[in-house]
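Reviewers asked in the last cycle whether our approach scales beyond single polypeptides. To address this, we selected a multi-component target totalling 621 residues and predicted its structure end to end. The input consisted of the following lines:
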Amino acid sequence: MTEVQGVSVHLQACAKTFPDGTRALEAVSLDVARGETMVFLGPSGCGKTTTLRIIAGLERPDAGGRVLFDGEDVTHLPIERRKVGMVFQSYALFPNMSVAENIGYSLKIRGIDRAERAARVAELMALTGIGGLENRSIDQLSGGQRQRVALARAVAMRPRVLLLDEPLTALDASLRERLRAELNRLLRSLGITAVYVTHDQAEAMALGDRIVVMRSGAIAQIGTPREIYFEPANRFVAEFVGAANILEAEAGEGFLALRGGRLPIGGSAKAVKGNVVAMVRPEAVTFVAPEGALLTGRVETVSFIGDRLRCTVVGVSERPLSIDAPNTISVSPGDQVGLSIDPDAVRLFPKESA
Amino acid sequence: MMKTRILFGLQLVFTLLVAAFLIVPALLSMVAGVTVNYFRGIRSGVTLDWIGQVWTLYADTIGRSFEVALATLLVTLLIGIPAAYALHRRGGRFSRVVEEIITLPIAIPGLATALALILTYGGFGDFRRSWLFILAGHVIFTLPFMVRAVMAVFATIDVKTLDESAASLGASPWRRFRDVIVPNAKPGVLAGALMVVTLSLGEFNLTWMLHTPLTKTLPVGLADSYASMRLEIASAYTLIFFVMIIPLLVAMQMIGDSTRLMTGRKS
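The resulting structure, written as C-alpha cells, was:
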C-alpha cells in the first residue's frame, strides 16, 4: 500500500521561552521535505521534544517564529486543526475505548460513516500486524501491541505530518530493535512526512533520511546519517554520535604531531597549521607491525565483545586511543604495536569548537 | 501454643464486645420500630402499623429528601467534574488554595454555613422558602467530596497526555472532555456520586437551619418525630432510613474496591 502524502514542514526562527523564563529553544530554522523522515537526536533537555511540540501545535513558538506546512502558515492553528498524527512516548491510548475504537477515533470525529471507518481500521490493523485484536481493551495489550495501535491510530486520518516522540523508548531492547525495522518499513511504504524524536543514536541512524543533532536548545548539525557520522560538524556531534577519539595536537605540513609519532592528514585538512582538535573513529584505526610504522603505542586493554575487539592503546596521544579491531586478530595487553590511520578518516575541528 | 489460643480468645471477645456496643443500639432502634409497645417489649407483639403511620405523616419528607439528593448530585456533577479537571490541569499553588476553599464547608459546622446562607440570601423570600435553598446548602457541603474523588482518579492517569493525544486526532476541547476525560474519570465520578447522595440524604445540621415547615427533609422529619411522636414511630422512621441508606453504603464500598483493584493493576 503506497499512500504518498504529507507536506513539507518549514520552521522559521522558532524559539521557545516558557512562562517561568526557561529558554527551551533558541531560534531554530529548518526544512523537512515532503515524504522525508527527519530525526531529532540529542541528550535530554536539548530542545528536541519542544521542537516536535511546536510542529504539532502543542506549543506556540515565541513571537517571530513561524511554522509552515507546504507554505501555509499554521503557527496559530491549534493541534486539533493541524491534521497531524502523533505517537506519544507513553502511547496515550484511551483506556475507555477498544483497540478498534482507538484507531477509528479520528475518523469518527471527522464524521466518516461506520462502514468506511471499519474498513479503514481493518486495513490499518493488517498493515501494523495487529489484526484480530479489534475488540481487546487497551490493558490487555503488550507493550509492542500498544505501540502498533498508537501508530495505526496516528496515521488513520492520513495526517499531513506524522510526529513520533520517542515511540520505542518504553520497550525492552530486543523488541525495540524488531519494531524499529518494522517502523522503518512502514514509514517508507506510507511515504509520509515524519518527524521523529529520540535520544538513541542507533534509532536515529536506522530511521532518519536526515538527522538533526541538537544541543542545549540549538541545532548542532543537520545531515544524512553518513554525514553526521563521517563528517561531524563539531566535537559535540562527533562524541554524541558513535564513539570518537578526540586528539588535541599540533598540525603542520600534512601531519598531526602526536606523542606516538606522526599522523598523516588528507584532503583540505593538509593546509591547516597550528593547534587543532582532530577526531578519529575507533574502527578507522588498524594494527600494523611496529617496525617502520608512523604511529606506535602499547596495548593497554583488550575486550572481546563478539563481533569485534575493543582495545585501548596508550602512548599515542594524551588520552588512551580506542580501537575497534576485527575479532580474528590476536593482540594482548602490553604488546608494542604500530598503528595505521587512513588520512581521510581524520577529521579536524577548529580548536575553539567545544 | 496454649498461650496464643487464650490471647486469640481474648481478642475475639473484645472485638465482639466492641461490635455489639455499636450494633445493638441500631438493632434495638429498628426492633422498636416494629414493636407494638416498646415499654412492654417485643412480647407485646410485632406490627407494621408504625411504619404505615410514618408513611402517612412523613412520606413527603422522604420524597423531598430524594429530590434534594438527586438535584444535589446533578449540580455537583455539573460543577464538580469540570472543576476537578480545571484544578488538575492548572495545578500549582493556586489550585491547592482553591481546593482548600472548596473543602472548608466540611470543617466548618453546618450551622455556621447555614447561618451565612440565611444572612446573605434570607432576604430573597421566594428562594428562602423553596427547597432550592436547601439544595444550595447541600451543594456547598457535598461539592468537595465530588471534586476530591474525581481529582483522585485524575492523579492516577496521565490526563494531560490523553487530552493532547485526543487533540492530535482532531477532537475539539468539548469532545475531548466528553469522549476521553469524563469516561476515564468514571470510577471517581461514581464514588463521588454515591458519597454525595448518601451525605445529602443524611444531612441534618445545615438542613435543620435552612428548612421551613414546608421544606422538611427526612432527617429533619426524624428529629421532629423524636421530639413530638411516640418512640415507636421515630424508630420506625429510623428503620425506613436504614433501609434506604444501606444499599447506597454497600454500593459505595463495592465501587471503592473495584477502583482500588483498577489502580492496583496499573501500578
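DSSP finds twelve helices and two strands in chain B. We regard this as preliminary and will revisit it once experimental data from Aim 1 are available.
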